User: Fold these one by one.
Assistant:
Number 1:
Amino acid sequence: MARAWHLTSRPTGMPTADNFALKELAQAELGDRMVQVKNSYLSVDPYMRGRMNDVKSYVPPFQIDAPMEGGAVGEVIESRDPAFAVGDQVMHMLGWRDEAVAAGTSLNKIPALGVEPREFLGMLGLTGATAYFGLLEAASAKAGDTLFVSAAAGAVGSAVVQIAKAKGMTVIGSAGGAEKCDYVRSLGADQVIDYKAGPLVKSLGKAAPDGIDVYFDNVGGDHLDAAFAHAKQNARFAICGMIDVYNAAEPQAFRYIMRVISMRIRVQGFIYTDYLPRMGEFYRDMGGWIASGAVKSRDTVVDGLERTPEAFLGLFSGANTGKMLVKL
Amino acid sequence: MARAWHLTSRPTGMPTADNFALKELAQAELGDRMVQVKNSYLSVDPYMRGRMNDVKSYVPPFQIDAPMEGGAVGEVIESRDPAFAVGDQVMHMLGWRDEAVAAGTSLNKIPALGVEPREFLGMLGLTGATAYFGLLEAASAKAGDTLFVSAAAGAVGSAVVQIAKAKGMTVIGSAGGAEKCDYVRSLGADQVIDYKAGPLVKSLGKAAPDGIDVYFDNVGGDHLDAAFAHAKQNARFAICGMIDVYNAAEPQAFRYIMRVISMRIRVQGFIYTDYLPRMGEFYRDMGGWIASGAVKSRDTVVDGLERTPEAFLGLFSGANTGKMLVKL
């Protein structure tokens, strides 16, 4: 019997394990054009926190007492859609469960790029595409720019660091704690800030005495404020995520936001799905960088469906280095 | 003997009359290429508050115990620069004083557009150019857009309302109090919000049930937060001024800033001087609108050099409708 994590109550502030329950799924008859998939890896991502609120956003909210959803890869074990054969590796959005039954139209066959399927939950999936299009399109970053990226040891951040180096930028990454900072350094960052070691505005000023051209924001809050404080004229900010804000009950306070005017800063929010028509470009560039070793992926893997909420909650306490995955 | 207002101390928070003193200026010998001007109108503008802080910005800070500066128009009364004759009407940046002695190269003859010289401190000066380039360039506003503009009864705001209507936009303006709201309505705004009458987030939601495409920000703070709350997808914000913030000791707090991501909002800071090479376009369009009556200017005029600080301080208590000027 397939099992799936259900959202049993909406969190206020930081979610807890009590917001979720693992329940058996009623076995659906495999209808025409339907496919059954045995999942091998599940993705947990910060954006899922937003879907737990009952507000209209770019994706609809999760429903109470319904199964959670999210990125997953797996193998087809039964198919009534002629486009899929038993044994095919697919990616889809019916994660948080061990087996999924879905219309063939909602599955994507994994492209034959010679990499592990789970990469399509990371560097070749939402994570990598978010880094790629956010950096190069939303922030118009280019060779020679000085880039600041927050959560640089995280899934998206570590991709941003490596793409920026491959493109010839000077990279300043922030992370929390010595171990993560070492990891960011190992990715090629020119300077690394341990945000737990002192006030960010000071550390960033020291790391970038001439200011920053580009800020890739994964966290909001103090990091965003420090970027306002040290932006050069005509700086561009790509706002990708605000992990500091997702669980915050209090409004975010900014001391340096007025520099948006004096420095003519451009702040651009974005979502990678806006660039889906251009995934070909992304697969070509990112596939090339992975093949050449210019971009390396590192995952934090949690074992077992039972631990999916734990993996998700770990995103907010900094438990992951690189992409956080659940292995089934 | 010429007199000028001097900055005698740097304000912390809201400036007061005690920060300024009116002093006689030592009579300088009129050197070669120098011009003496008798000022007729002085401009006071919110940006001057920023120059009172001792911080590097897009204009250098005012110096303590030195004369204040600012936009002014006047008549040449003596000239040792062959480019200027006695009787010429000129605009320049040596305001806050009754007479100015300046190098001819720092004066601009007022173009012969058949309008009052004082218009070049308003609709045809910094004020109008800020509205024009901010709206049409920084915010990329176009016909059919729904625009929200704060401080719509102010100098820049009232210009924005009229330019937007001339360009075929739907305009929602905010102002404080019934009298100012009536004025904004008289400029052609489709809807007017009295921000003193209730919470902005609610009022803006009512005025723009489908959301806003463009926000022209003159105030920051709660207005900016309300604009985040009601932005449509791909909304563009031009950040022109943050009058709520200039004197604030506390950081600005935002409850809806995360919508930058979900709505892919673009926030663009700007300063009109970036567009100086394009003033020809501006004179052509704005001159035409003034001639046709599509754009009307209204000033708040305070009489007498002695009252210059009072006029300046009035900008922060909402004493002005339209451009605030001092008449000498």
Number 2:
Amino acid sequence: MNKIILLKNRPTGKPTLSDFEFSEEERPKAKEGELLLKAKYVSVDPYLRGRMRDEKSYIEPFKVGEPLESGIIAEVVESNNRNFKRGEFVNGTLKWKQFQTSNGNGLNKVDREKAPLKAYLGVLGLTGITAYLGLDKIGKLKKGETLLVSGAAGAVGSVAGQIGKIKGCTVIGIAGTDEKTDRIQEKFGFDGTINYKTSKDMKTAIKEACPNGVDVYYDNVGGETLDAALANMNKFGRVINCGAISLYNETKTPTGPRVESTLIKNSILMQGFTVRDYIKDFGPAQNQLAKWMEADKISYLETVVEGFDNIPQAFIDLFEGKNKGKMIVIV
Amino acid sequence: MNKIILLKNRPTGKPTLSDFEFSEEERPKAKEGELLLKAKYVSVDPYLRGRMRDEKSYIEPFKVGEPLESGIIAEVVESNNRNFKRGEFVNGTLKWKQFQTSNGNGLNKVDREKAPLKAYLGVLGLTGITAYLGLDKIGKLKKGETLLVSGAAGAVGSVAGQIGKIKGCTVIGIAGTDEKTDRIQEKFGFDGTINYKTSKDMKTAIKEACPNGVDVYYDNVGGETLDAALANMNKFGRVINCGAISLYNETKTPTGPRVESTLIKNSILMQGFTVRDYIKDFGPAQNQLAKWMEADKISYLETVVEGFDNIPQAFIDLFEGKNKGKMIVIV
């Protein structure tokens, strides 16, 4: 049999296990032109929360009663498609199923000689590429500038900060525990950190951590942290709105201070960033990240959870900040 | 004697006449290298409200007890500077004084053969250039797109919309009276209009007026109109945050729905625009606008108030929307 995980109902607020349904189906067979894939590593990411809402976004919402999906590294266990061989590994947006078939569209082969397979879900995968392209397309970092990163201990933030260091910037990271802020400085080489949970006044905390102001803010969290960052942006500052995890579980439209006067005063740019808008740039971004990894210029952390059945809990744990770096489930 | 107008105190909320002091001083004399200027046309603009606050912005705040200043067309009535001749007219940021001296720095000569002098405060001046460069630098309008403009009957908005038509876009304008919305369509050739004062639900009103969604929003007002526009922006939409007149007289930090999730969902760009950031582009912008004016592709309206003593009232009237197009005081 084949285990599968379906969306049982759309979560209200924070997702819970009761929003997921564990089910089984017959193991599928690969038809002519198809592959049979066995999931190996499953990526769980905060943006999936958005797909659980029934609303138009950059990506189709999940349907109730159907399997969820995310970035998955899978092994080709059977191939009736001449482009793929049995024993190869592929990366793609795949369903939360132990086994599934595919016609090969949208799959990329991954080379386990070049990097550990899991890295293709993290620093060489969508999260690393998100960090790289967000900075490249919107941040346009210049040497000597100050880069502020929220969610800095996370999969995207930790890479974004390290790229900032490679580019010759002063990099300050925001995270929610002292253990995380220590890690940001020690393992990822950030110049300074802010613990947003113990800081009484984030606006002042950022001002003190960034005495020359903030030129680029890589935002993964939104909400009050964004407000505080905006108050510290320099003239011509750029905000990469990559994520807003602080708002994902809100049930009402969140409100906050209006931004327009601040944007006008300092000619600030804010732009929503979705890595899928830049698919044609994935290759060069991945190559650059692989080079930096090889040269030991980029470190990364993973939290690896074992067992197919634990995918939903691993996802839920993201909202408690239980992960260190990229959260991955090994099936 | 020489009449002058000083900032008496910083307004709380909407400015009133009691915030201004009418005074007199001796008429100044031009020293070696200086000019004596006589104010002819004085521009009053919403952004001056920002300079009345004691806070850092893109331009220095006015000082209490000192003369205010704005864009002024003045006649050279005496010249000890070989770059300027008596009888010439200049445009510059000058003080609210009938007569004043200048060393010529920051003054541009204006050619009354090319266009009426007043046009250099409007369509060929900062307001026209603001419309042009905001669209050029941030809006990056493409033929066939939908441009939404707020403050569309005003000095900046009316030119922005006409440029949109020249570029082959569908242009919808927002204004606050039926007389204004009629004017936008009849005189300025907009494709459609919305009266925000009589529309019950601006989000729906914009949706109906822009069935293909909004690609570029030229925002002069901020606040709830901006919220409604953001809800209607297409993927990769661009918001030019040029002004926020609806918030200028607020005494507390205004709040509203948070924008970050909306920006992320549709990869929307919002950027604060201040024309003074692009001084090197003023010449080409003015030339292009002059060509369009000559070819009758751009119309404009002015509200001309007479008398030096009426400058403050003309400024105050901007916040009641009493102007039709550019508000100018003839001295």
